[in-house]
């Protein structure tokens, strides 16, 4: 991702973050449930970013458990390292 923004970044932390392949982003089911129940109890509505199909299955788990209520706002994200690839351009024959 760093190559996409090289030369357009204002701060060193942006380069450090985007160029770091060793970052571990903690996002356990316990963490997610805590956020959903704590903020959801105050009426917060969530946008669910789904980078791959596993995120949809994770969201279904929380929905089936009654922790997440509809209607759901789901945004798909493609082209990130570790997620679904970009949708290729298709041409009709």
Provide an overview of this structure.
The chain has 93 residues and is mostly helical. The protein has one domain (2-76). It contains 4 helices and 2 strands, in the order αααβαβ. The chain has helices at residues 2-5, 12-18, 29-40, 53-64, and strands spanning 47-50, 73-76. Strands 1-2 form a two-stranded parallel sheet. The longest helix is centred in the middle third of the chain and has 12 residues, at 29-40. It is elongated and about 45 Å long. The protein starts with a helix and ends in a 17-residue tail after the last strand. 0% of the residues are buried. The model has no long low-confidence stretch (mean pLDDT 83).
Class from helix and strand fractions: mainly alpha
Strand line-up in the sheet with most strands: 1-2
Q: Give a short account of the largest sheet.
A: 2 strands, parallel
Q: What's the total number of strands?
A: 2
Termini separation comes to 33 Å
Radius of gyration: 17 Å
The ordered string of helix (H) and strand (E) elements is HHHEHE
Name the shape in a single word: elongated
What proportion of the residues form beta strands (DSSP E)?
A: 5-15%
Q: Tell me the count of domains.
A: 1
Specify the helix fraction band: 25-40%
Give the overall pLDDT as a whole number.
Answer: 83
Q: How many alpha or pi helices?
A: 4
Q: Which residues form runs of ≥5 with pLDDT under 50?
A: none
Gist?
The chain is mainly alpha-helical. It is built from four helices and two strands; from the N terminus they run H-H-H-E-H-E. The chain is 38% helix and 9% strand.
């Amino acid at each position: 991702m760093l190559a996409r923004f090289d030369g357009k970044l204002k701060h060193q932390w942006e380069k450090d973050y985007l160029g770091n392949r060793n970052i571990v982003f903690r996002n356990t089911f316990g963490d997610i449930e805590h956020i959903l129940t704590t903020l959801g109890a105050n009426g917060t509505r969530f946008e669910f970013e789904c980078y791959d199909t596993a995120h949809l299955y994770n969201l279904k788990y929380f929905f089936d458990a009654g922790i997440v209520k509809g209607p759901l706002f789901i945004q798909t994200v493609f082209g990130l390292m570790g997620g679904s690839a970009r949708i290729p351009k298709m041409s009709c024959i």
